[in-house]
Structure formats: C-alpha cells, structure tokens
Amino acid sequence: FIMGRTIIVILPVLLILSNYSVAVPYEDFIGYPFGEEHGDQLFPPILDHSIPILVPNDSLPFGFPFFGEKYPYIIMNVHGALSFHREPISFTTYTPRSFPLNASSLMWPWARMIAPYWSDVDITVQPGSITYRILYPSNSSGLLSCISQMSGLKNFRANWGLIVTWNRVGYYQEHNDKLNTFQAVLVTDGIKSVTIFNYADDGINWIMTDTGGVLVGYNAGDNIRYLEVNGSLTERIAFIDEIPGNTGEIGKWIFRLNQEFVNIDVSISGNDIVISPESFQYTCIVNSSSAVVFSWYFEGIEVSQLSGIFYTVITTESTIQESVLTINETKPSFGGTYECRAHNTLGIGNDARILTVLDKPDPPENVTITGSTDRDQFITWDNGFNGNLEIIGYDIYINSSRNPDLSPIDLAGVKGEAAVTLNGTTAVISNLIPFVEYSYAVTICNLLGCSKMSDISNSVWTDPAIPDQEPTNCIATVMSPTTIEVTWKAPDPPNGILRDYRIVFKPITAVADYNPMDFEGITNMTTGNTTTKYSITGLQEAVRYDFMISAINQVGEGPLTTTDCSAETDESYPKAPMNVSVYSPGPTSLMATWDHPLPQDRNGIITDYLISIKITDDSEDMFLINSNSNETSYTIKGLRESTEYIVSIAAVTSVGIGVESNDVIHKTLNDNIDVNCPSEEDALWGFQWEQTAPNVTVIEKCDENGQLYSSSGIVTRKCNSEGVWLMVNTSQCQSSSLADVEEEANEIFTNQNSGEPVSKTVAEKLNNLTVTLQMITDLQSEENKPIFPRDLEAINTFIAMTSSLAEDNGLFNTSYNEETLVEIVNNVLDTSQEVGWSMLTETNSTMGSPELLQNIERISSALSNNLQAAGVSEKVIAFSNIILSSMLVDSTNSQISPDDFVAENSSIPFEDIPEIELPLTKLVSGDAGIPIPISLSLMKNLDMFLPRRFQNGSMLPTAQTVPGTIVTSVQVASAYTVDSDDEKLVTINFPITEDNKNVELSGHTCAFWKFDDNSLGGWSTIGLSTQKEKNGMVTCSSTHLTSFTVLVNVAGVKNSKDVALAFSILSYIGCAISMIALILTILFLVICQRKVLISKVNNFVLLNLSIALLLGLTVFCAGIQTAKSSYGGCTFVGVLLHYLFLAAFSWMLCEGVLIYNLLVKVFGVNDRKWIYIYSALGWGLPLPAVIVTAAARYDNIHIRESLNKESPLYHEIRACWLSSENGVIFAFVGPIIAIMIVNTVFLCMAMVSLWKNKFGKSMSAMSSPESKTNLKAGWQLVKATIILMPLMGITWIIGLFAVSPHPATFAFSIAFIILNSLQGLFIFLLHVVRHDKVGGRIAGFVKKRKVKLSRDISSSKVTTTVKSVELNELQWNYSGVYLKQNPAYVSTCNKELSSSVAEDQSESDRLQWNYNRMYRQTNPICNVSGNKRPSDSSIIEEPSNGDPPSK
Questions:
Q1: What are phi and psi of 158, to 5 degrees?
Q2: Phi, psi of 1117 (to 5 degrees)
Q3: Full-model pTM
Q4: For the segment 354-400, what is each residue's pLDDT rounded down to a tens digit?
Q5: Which end of the chain is more exposed for a tag (fewer CB within 10 A), N or C?
Q6: How would you classify the pairing of strands 193-199 and 252-256?
Q7: Are strands 215-219 and 193-199 parallel, antiparallel or unpaired?
Q8: For residues 1426 and 1430, what is the distance between their CA atoms, to the nearest angstrom?
Q9: Residue 801 — left, alpha, or beta (φ > 0 → left; ψ -120 to 50 → alpha)?
C-alpha cells in the first residue's frame, strides 16, 4: 500500500523505461526544451511515486541552497511537487495542503517544497510522461546563463540547474480525457536559487477537486516564508495558463528561493467603518520597480469568488502601483478582514484591514415560552446580528386572548398589564392574568435603531388560580318577609372557568358592633350554577342580613365581597318563648324562667317580655307584668303563700306582643315548712336570698346585691335537698367599671405592634387604666369584699398584657408607674379573694392563679432588666402581700443574702421572710465583670390560690395542704447561664410556722410551680432536695431558678419515721446476712466444685447469680444513701444498681431455663454451648435497658446542670435510685415482672410434667394402695418448688402487693423485705448446705462429737445427699416417660455406663446415674442385669458406701 493505493510492478523499471514512448512537446510551449532528444531522463510511470536526485557535491558543495539551508537531495514527486531533504525520503503525497506547512512536524517532513502544480497526477495512463534533466554549464548551451539573466538577481551566474516537465499528464484514476502540461525549473549558483514555473498555452485542462484541488507556490517550511499563487486550491487555478505571471508573460512565474527574502511594501488606505448600505473603497498601494501581481482576500477567500465585491489594477509609469477594491452597496455580511497580497520577482508583501459595517440589528430568533405559572411566564430567544454595535435594549410585545393585538410591555411594568424582568436573552413576564393565553415577539435595539419584530412565539396559557377579584355590584332586594334576592356581577378576570358561587350571609343583631369578618352564626350555601342571581328563602322576619358572595373556579374559591350588600326583612309578631318553668323560691314569690324563641321565630328584635299571672280559681283577676328587659328570668313577688298561680310568657317586639307560651301552674310555698332554705344575706357577697324550697336553684341579677360597683350578669345559688344553701356562684357576674377598663385596654393592646417601643401616649393611657384598676381593687380590699371571678380574669389579663409590654416593648422605661401595677397584684393576693380565685381556676384553667404567678415573674424580670436604663442599682416595691426586689450585683460575689434585698426596708409586713443563698460565681455571661440583674419575688397567700395538683396532673392528697407559706420566685436575666457542676444553684431556708413545727421531715416537701405547654402546670419536686435544720428552717436546695414553696403534710403520721427506720434496719440486716451467705456460696463453688464448675452448667449459673446478687447488695448498702450528697456520684450509683439488679434477675431467668432443660429436654443440658448462651443472657440482657434509660435524660442530669432540669432518672429525693416521676421506674419494674412471669411459667410446666409422670394422666392413683407413697412424692414436689423459688426469683412477686394502698400493704412490705433481703441466705442453705460434700462433712463433724443426728444424716455421707434427691427422683420418673415416648434413644443403651460415681460428683451426676439405671431397667432390650425399677425407698436409701450399684 502507498497512500491507500496498491501498486503492482510486474516488469523491472529498466524494462518499463525502454518501452515507454515519449510524446512530442507542444510547439507553442513557452518553457524550455524537454524530451529525450534534449537529454531528458524519463520518470518511471508508477502511480504515487517519487525519485530522489542527489545534487553533485563538486558543483554544489553540501547541496542545493533553499532559503538559507542546503539540501543534498531533491525529491521529485509524480504529483507536481519537488521537496528538499538531507536524506532520500519518499514523497508521494497527492493531496495538497494549504501553506504554510511546518517541516519540523512529523506530519509534513516534506514541507520544504516548490509546487508547480501539486495535484493528483496519474502517470500510468497514456500519453502522459514526466521527464527531467540536470543542467551544467557544459551541457546547457547557454540556458543557465539565460535563466540567470531572467532572475533579475545581480551577480547571479547559475552553475547548476534542474528541469522537470510534466507533459500531457492525466489524472487519477487513469483519466486521460483531459491533459495538463507544465514545467518546473530550478537553478542556483550555490548561494542563491531561483525557480521558474512554465505553463503551456491551453496546457492546463483538469483540476482534482475530489482530492483537495491544486496548489501552486512554494513553502520554506518555517511557517514564515511561503507563497500560494492566486486561485490555488480553487477552480480558478485552472486559468493559470491564460493569465500573466509575475514575469508579465502569460503562463510564466519566477520565484527567488533565497535566504534574503524581500518583503515588498504593501499598504491599504481607506476608512474602516461604513454604515450600510453606503458604498466603500480600499486602495492597495505598492512601491516597486518590478511588475506587481495583486490579489484581494476577504476572510481568507479571494474576492473574485464573491459577488458584490470587485477590484481593479491601476498601472502607472512610476514605481507606484495600485489596486482599488470597491463595494457599491455594503451589507453587514461584508464586514470583516480584507487582505491585499502583492508579489513580483523581487518578493511578496501584504497588508490587511478590518472593515466594520454598521447596521440595525437583525430580529431575534427562536422566541419561545419555556415555562408558565398562574401569573408568570418565562421566555427565551437567540440574538441575531447586533449590527456591529452594542445592544442597548429589547422591546417585548405581548399578545393575549383578552387582547389579541400585539402591544409593547414596558420594562418597568408601567405600560399594559404585565411587567418584564430581563436577564440576558431571557425574560420573566410577571403580573399576568391566570388562565389567559399569551404569546410574545421581541425586537433588539442598538444606536442605529431597532430590528424588525421577531416571529411570534408559541402560545401558552397561564395556569388557573383562585379568583383574586370579588364579584361586583352586589345588590340585596327584599322579595318577601322571609325572602331576599341577591344579584351580582362575575369577577373580572375570573382566573379560570367559573363553576359556582358561594353565598355567605348572617343576621346582623347590632349594626354598631357589626364586623363583616366575624363569621359566628353565618350560613353558607352554593348556587350550584354560574348565574349571577339567587333567592334566599326561609329567613327570619325583622332581621337585617348581610350577604357576601365569592366566585368558585376549578382551582378554588375567591374572596368574599366586602362592599355593603344587605337588606332587612320586615318585622312581625314573635312566637312564644320556650321551656317556661316556674318555681317558688319563697312563700310570697314565684321565679319564672324561659328561653328566647328560636332565632327564626323571633320575627324582630325582642325588647321586652310580658308576664301574665292569675290565681287558678279566679279567671278574671289577671296581672300583666313587663320585665323591662330581654333577659329570660323574672321573680314575681308579693304573692299569697300556698296559692296556685297560672303563669304564661309572651315576647314583645316593635310590632307588638307575640304569642303567649303555654300556661304553667305552680303553687307558692307554705311558710310553715321547715325544710326550706331560710331567707338570708350571704356574708361573703352580700346577696339577699329569700326562703327557697329544696333542690331549687335561685337566679338573681348581679346588680341587686349592694355591690360597690354596678354589674351585669346573673348570680345563682342552689338550695340542696336538705334545705341547706350551697355556695353562691358569681362566675357570670362582671362589674361595669371593669368591663369598661377591659374594653379600652384591649384596644390599646391590639394596636400595639410587637417589638415596637411603647409611645408616650400609650404609656399615659395605660397608666390611667392602671390607676383606675388600683382604685377599684383598693376599695374591694378595704371593704373585705371578694372580686367577681370574671373581674379577676379581666384584671389578670390586664396584668399579663401590661407585663408583656414591659418585657418586650420597654413600658417601664416610660412614665408608666409600675408600683401601681404591683399594688393591683397586692390587692388581688388578699385573703378575701381566695373564693374568687378558686372559682376562676375551676371555670378557666388558663387564666387562674397560675397565670397570675407567671405575670408576677414577668413584672419582676422587667424590673430587673430595667435597672441599668433607669440608672439605679436596686429597686424594692413592697406591699402587704408581695415584695418585688430587683438589684444589679457584682458577679465576683460569692453569694447573695436576703439582707441585700429586703432588710433595709423596715416597713415590710412579713413576719417570716425566707433566706435565699444564690452563689453568683456560677452565673456567667458573654461579658465578664458586667453586673448581673437579679430579681426576687415574695408572695403571700398565692399558695392558697394555686390549684392543689402536681405537675403530672395528679391531685395533692386531701390531707396535704399549703398552710399560708411564702411563695418565693428567684430569677436571673435570661442572658446568663449556669456554669457549675454543683447541683445546688440556689438555697432557700423557709421558716416553719408554729402550727407545723411538730411535723416530721417527711411532712415537709420543697416544691416549685412548673409550667407546661398544655396547661398552667402544677407543683413539682424535680431538681429539689429537702432538709430540716436545727434552727427551725426547712432548707430547699435547687438546681434551677423559679417559684418555690414548702408543701406540708399536716396528716403525716408521727411515728412514720420510726416505721421507715424499722424497715431500713430490717433491710440492712437481711442484706448483710445474704452477703455473707453469698460469699460462702461463691467460695464453695470456686473451691470445692472447681473441677466441675465449667463442665456443670447448673454450678456455673448458680455462681454467676450469686456474684450478681452480691455485687448488687454491696453497692446498695454502700451507696444508695451515702452517695446522694453528690449528684454525679448518686447518678453513678443509680446506674450501677439498675444494671446489677437487672443482671441478677437475668441469671434468675437462666435458672428457669436450666430447670426447664433439666426436667423437659433431659439431653444435652450440660453441653458447653449453654455456658456461652447463659453468659450472654445473664450479663448482656440488662445492658440495653440500662443504656437507654441512662441516655434518655443523661444530658440533663450529669454533664451540665441546666436551669430547667428534667426529672433525674437515678436521683430520687431520698435515695440514689430510679425516679418514680415520668414512669422511669418501669425501666426496672417492667423487666423483672416479665422475668417473674416467664420463670413462673417454667416452674409450673416442670411441676405439671413431673406430676403427670408420677401419677399418670388420672388422679385415681391418689386412692390406690400406694397412696402413702404418692402423698410422700407430692410432698417432695412441694419441697422441690420451695427449693427452686429462691433461684428463680418468684418471691419478688410479693413486692407488687407491697405498693398497694390497701391496709394489708404493711404485712406485704414486711414479707417482701424478709424474703428478698434473705434471698442469698436461702440460696446458701438450699443449694450449698444440702450439697453432698458439705452435708457429708457436717455429718462427720457431728459424728466425731458423738452427737446423735437423724437417721438420714448419720448413716453416711450419701444419706445427706439423698435429702436433696427429690429432684433426682423426679428427673428419674420423667426420663422413663420420655424414653418410652422416644424409642429411638433405646439404641444408646448399649453404651457402657459408669460403674461408680466419684466421691465428689455433683447432684446432677447422681441425677444422670439414676437416669442410666432407670433407662436400663425400663427398656428390656438393653436390660443387661435384669434389675427392676427401684422403688421410691430404694432410690432414697442408697448403699452406705455412697456408690451406685455396678453395671
């Protein structure tokens, strides 16, 4: 392969040369003679071939000079090119490459070349030929001298030359229909070189465009010196034989190949900027004495190939030669780089200029809507030609289904309905109308103007949206007394497809107070269609109705109309009142109560009620009484006693009196009946109550009691069945003056913006209202009159809103007098207000006394935070029931005492002031040394008002009360945090009152009021410890700051401390005995049973159970009380106890599993795998419960002391153990209950199985002749159960009864303490002392001292073993049944049984021995010895040597 073509050479080259005929050259060829007759050599007719010619060293030392370098080889390429090299390489490239080419590139090693006609020549087709000859002065016949003169070089005398002629050659592939003839001449004097290209007239007839065209020129290979003749690589090169060359002769070109390459001076003149469509000219000027060939190029393309551009050559007799490029009508596409190239025999030159054609921009393309929402659309476009000027803006035109004409959108959104946000070639069209089809067009603008409009984009609908416009022109027209017709217009735009309308209407009871957004009592209905008219029927007479309309489309419902659209139906006579009832509160009065007619039956505004009353036997004597109000009760007085009356009620409107109710007959009371509640004035509220019958609730108006201020509402009181008055209920009463204050205050609070400082005007208004409230509450307090609960609620709300403004809006920084506000608090804390607070807390849990406590804390906090702004370091506000003390203290102080707060104020009315210690060094903030704002609040009587409940919702015991102790609130500014590992942040010493000094410590409990999210909280003891000191103080230590008091259990038992002490002593004694017994058990298992400790699973489980119990009891005795002084240490002890006791119960569970395996599974129970299973179960099972419990609140109980500490899981008030609050104790109780249940099931299963094995499925065996033996075996079952219970922890079930409130709890508590504190002793006695080894040694010890023991002990060492063999016998019996049911095991009987049992065998070994003996005796197929199944006595009384019988 050569360049992709296959060449097959059949004959030797010499043969080819000799047989090739050479054509006669053209007679009119302007080149030099060629042919064999002139001494030419013939180029071989081989496709894609090259021949290296070695330049003679004698004529041209070092080779042919080519642009400053000498090359010994000239490579002749068949394809019309010659290359210069230092080595004879192959040069067969037939595809021309545009110059320049770099010869140093591996791709073009042949790039140093001349190209007379570089194209795809095919020399293999007739009649073409290539000839060449080398010229010397001796054979050139003056040709070298002629060429030397033609070169124009001074002192140039060529001494060597080469002529190569391509005569009538065809083109690839073997085409000869068109033929080309051209010649290349190379001459040199050894220093300078010249090449001449000659083209025969009509000698160029083909060009190979398929293989790249034709290139004519030369290339020095340095990317600098090169030349392409005009038309190269284009079709115009075919005319090179018809145009003058740079010599001035047609078809003749001459080029110097010297190092001294001459750049002729070429320059272009003309303006580089033109505005389309103006004409334009460039002039190319060359100063040269030799004829110049001009060529113009636009963006690398010769302009002769372009339409609309042409150039002319102006020749002059001077050395100045010019060529003018002309464009008659410029276009933007004519802008670009124009190059003028000029060359002659002296060299080459060029100049270039960049022409800029200015024009308006082209229209944008591809305008597309790429996205759409309900109100925005997103469009993009591609910019067209910018007119060679900067784009200064865009115009966007919008077209919609609502407005089909294209209209511009102003970029600022001023014009039209939309606004545009531009970002390059994207835009967001906003403020569009939902559910409208839009399309767009865009224009681009520069300084010359704007482009034409682009094509219109695609059309896209905006998404539908809920209508944002309300229907318009709503009109309500009364059609009848009960019908109103409403008409309206549809909203525009509808933002979608309207599907329905909603009509909302409500009756307007009071026009002055009407609020269209108050939807109480509204009626909703939909029209079911899109018509804009609807009639509402069934309305009430004489009622004004307000109508609001909303439109509904496929997305949702729009806004309701806000314009007035109302009408009032005509009034008519009302219907009868409902539920009329009459009773006699006294001998001379009747109380009538009723309900208003239904709203639809009132037919107007009821202004009055008419009461008709007459005696039953007097049809003419009737009285009519106006109630003069629209209230629904009335007391008719001045009647006869013990007389029947007929009563009826009728409502009254502006039209007249309505329908009377049904008659109600009732008899006045007999004055002689003693069971009636007597007439009286209650001392508390001052209401006058007449004599009233039993089980009757009397209703009176609140303003009829001689109250200090007029009031509204009703007050009720019931006479119970025993004729005793119950408590007066005033929860519906409100003082008119307080109602006015509440209304004005609500307006102020509503208009005050959150966080905005309180203005002077607002402060003055609030101050006036505060003074009014202070005067009202002062008078109530002075007169010892309780305040209505509803009034207390209003006062509490006022205090809450005012204190909130003080905290958040700086109210106390204004002229507002905060002392007046505190005086109001003082007044409502008076003991006379207890009944009001109690009633309020019962009816409104969110606005009762807990809210008052929270308000006091807010006031106190605002006072302390305002100290710096006020320029004072302390402020004390003291009244009879409250002290608020605030001060700025130095953070370097160690503590703060009550003297710093209240001692300097000698007028404090408290007799017993708590002492507070607050270590300030534990409080840190971001700025060291800045004074710390601290506030202290002392509140008297508040504890009486607070609900008697715990924070978890449970109520205080009825005997547990709060006997008037001080509630103390200690606060620090919220910017300060606690920086201490010590749990005691604040200590408060509460004085013990005289009435409670004999109460034991267990009767005093420190508590604080804990608020929560769902309600106003309750008392809690979290984070508090209680201590009683000798100086008559109850000391409360707390880990947080809040409001504290002391709860006193006045019903506490005097000797409860003695009982607790007795229980404690019993527990410690039992634990000590168990610890000693467990140590002995462990020593026995480790020392005496060490050989079988690991191989015998029951020993291993017993050892681990003993270790777990011993460790748990040790930590319990050593740390549960002693560690509570340290919070961290107490937490550690609690966690450790939790784990160890759960581990002990896990090992009890292992004992249960082991018993089940021994008595049910039988085989494989001593496999070593069980040791690993039991270890994982015993020590691993408690870990998840302990870890989860400790981690649940660990962050709040150990690492750092939070001011709002949650329940310490392992820190009870009196012991380091799981807290009973929040149910954390169930992390221990839950697992042990589960284990006890599982072990009980295991024990029952084992006992049932053994019972069935002993007596079969029937109980008839109990009456058999062997009943004595059966009874004895039954007793053995009972003893086995007793033996297993300590191991399996069954006795802990008693603990469930010890926590019951039943009177028997005391007995269960004693039983629980004895049985479980002595659990270790029971394990030692039942499972160590009864062991064969220990029992035997005890028997020997007694025998030596000649003390007679029982027959079972003194007979031998093994006799003692038999004492515990009940389990073995039970195992024996069960195993027989098992094997009978599993005959597959019979084959195992052929295995040799052990003939004896070692002296130190354990109880399980003997159990196995009994099983083996039984197995043989009960299976005849393997009964070698023929032994019978032993009787019970033979099992119990083994041979005295202690060895089982041999095989």
A1: -65, 135
A2: -70, -35
A3: 0.40
A4: 999 999 999 999 999 999 999 999 999 999 888 888 998 898 999 88
A5: N
A6: antiparallel
A7: unpaired
A8: 12
A9: alpha
